[in-house]
Amino acid sequence: MSAPRPFPGDVADDRVDEEFWQGCREGRYLLYRCGACGWTVWPAGGCPRHGMAEMTWQPASGRGRLHTWTVVHQRYGSSFPGPPPNVAIVELEEGPLVLTSVIGADRLEIGMPLEVTFTEIGPEVVLPVFRPPRAGEGHG
Ligand SMILES: [Zn+2]
Questions:
Q1: Is residue 72 one of the residues assigned to a domain?
Q2: Using CA atoms, how far apart are residues 87 and 75, in angstroms rounded to an integer?
Q3: How many A from CA of 14 to the centre of ligand 1?
Q4: Tens digits of per-residue pLDDT, 108-134?
């Protein structure tokens, strides 16, 4: 019997998404994109016009804007040490809305520009999170 992995270590159990999680471990943010029309989806799924035939993981901009968020004050586990985490939805430049967290921001404001970064929360478990762009790296 293998040692239990700490929650949320099971995030990579879906094999379709393994390339995405491997990208996170390597500091690359990938989105599932249709090669025929460019339609982009998260999580992985089929293109409404072309199905799964042309879907592959492709490098994404890593940029987006804060769509909404909440702060979690009640902890249900020890996987996330530190201050109360926020749970955010970021609208990516490519279109999908992703569930994530924002770090490194003094305050959060709907519509604020964000960029992806990665945080290792356990062995082989690296999560994409978002932060305000560094000075000089902002986007309109
Ligand atoms: Zn398509």
A1: yes
A2: 13
A3: 22
A4: 999 999 999 999 988 888 999 999 998
Whether 65 and 128 map to the same domain: the answer is yes
Q: Residue 137 C-alpha to ligand 1 middle, in angstroms? A: 31
Q: Domain tally for the chain?
A: 2
**How far is the centre of ligand 1, averaged over its atoms, from the C-alpha of 46 (Å)?**
8
Residues 6+ apart with CB under 8 A from 96: 31, 40, 41, 42
Å from CA of 98 to ligand 1 middle: 20
Residues 30 and 94 in one domain: no
C-alpha 50 – ligand 1 centre gap (Å): 4
Residue 7 within any structural domain of the chain: no
pLDDT tens digit string along 19-69? Answer: 999 999 999 999 999 999 999 998 888 999 999 999 999 999 999 999 999
What is the distance in A from the centroid of ligand 1 to the CA of 115?
26
